[in-house]
């Protein structure tokens, strides 16, 4: 009765444990997080582009760490924007006023289908070559 899933990153089948990426990719993500965290600690105020170039970690991932609230760096948060109005924010996906508006909408129109479940933007199809090269280290 094992609950198997395909990893959303590498496509491997793995036993599902609450995340839709496999332990191997999770570990890789953790490594990348540590690298980024160390870099911004040593270079406070470094912008996203600089961190991407110096650490080799994808911009999307760095932004994801910021959105998750795991990473806090002045230079990096400047590039994080509210998905609704575009205002700059420190963590999460929306600015405070949008969060309030969204909450009010949800409370006001509860029977309506929640729109937040739909992806806000189409996934970017490109997979960077260097990720494949790195993958080899795990075989
Ligand atoms: Zn994987
Ligand atoms: Zn907003």
Protein model, in words:
- The chain is mainly alpha-helical and 139 residues long.
- It has 2 domains: 1-78, no CATH class; 82-109, no CATH class.
- 44% of the residues lie in helices and 4% in strands.
- It is built from 6 helices and 2 strands.
- The protein has helices at residues 23-42, 48-55, 59-67, 74-77, 96-108, 129-135, and strands at 4-6, 13-15.
- It has a two-stranded antiparallel ribbon.
- A hairpin with a 6-residue loop joins strand 1 (4-6) and strand 2.
- The longest helix has 20 residues, at 23-42.
- The protein is flat and about 40 Å long.
- Mean pLDDT is 80; it is low at 127-131.
- The structure holds zinc ion (2 copies).
- Residues 7, 9-10, 12, 21-22, 24-25 line the site of one zinc ion.
- Residues 114-139 have a biased composition (Basic and acidic residues).
- Keywords: Cell projection, Cilium, Flagellum.
- This is Flagellar protein.
- Residues 109-139 are annotated as: Disordered.
């Amino acid at each position: 009765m094992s609950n198997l899933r395909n990893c959303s990153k590498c496509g491997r089948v793995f036993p599902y444990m609450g995340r839709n990426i496999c332990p191997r990719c999770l570990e890789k993500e953790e490594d990348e997080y540590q690298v980024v965290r160390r870099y911004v600690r040593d270079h406070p105020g470094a912008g996203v582009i600089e961190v991407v170039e110096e650490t080799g970690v994808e911009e999307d991932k760095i932004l994801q760490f910021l959105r998750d609230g795991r990473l806090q760096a002045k230079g990096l948060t400047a590039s994080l924007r509210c998905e609704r109005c575009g205002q700059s924010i420190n963590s999460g996906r929306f600015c405070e006023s949008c969060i309030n508006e969204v909450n009010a909408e949800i409370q006001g129109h509860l029977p309506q289908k929640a729109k937040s479940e739909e992806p806000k933007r189409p996934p970017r199809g490109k997979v960077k070559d260097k990720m494949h090269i790195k993958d080899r280290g795990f075989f």
